[in-house]
Amino acid sequence: MALELYLDLFSQPCRSVFIFAKKNNIPFVFKSIKLFEGEQYGEDFGKINMIRKVPAIRDGDFTMGESIAILMYMAEKFRTPDHWYPADLQKRALVNEYLSWQHTATRMHGSKIFWLKLMIPKVMKTEAPKEKMDSAIEDLEGSLKIVEEKFLQDKPFIAGEHISLADLVAIVEIMQPVGAGMDVFSGRPKLTAWRNRVQAAIGKDLFDEAHQDILSAAKRVDSMDSSKLERFKPRIVKMFF
Question: Which has the closest alpha carbon to 11: 73, 67, 49, 58?
Answer without folding.
Answer: 67
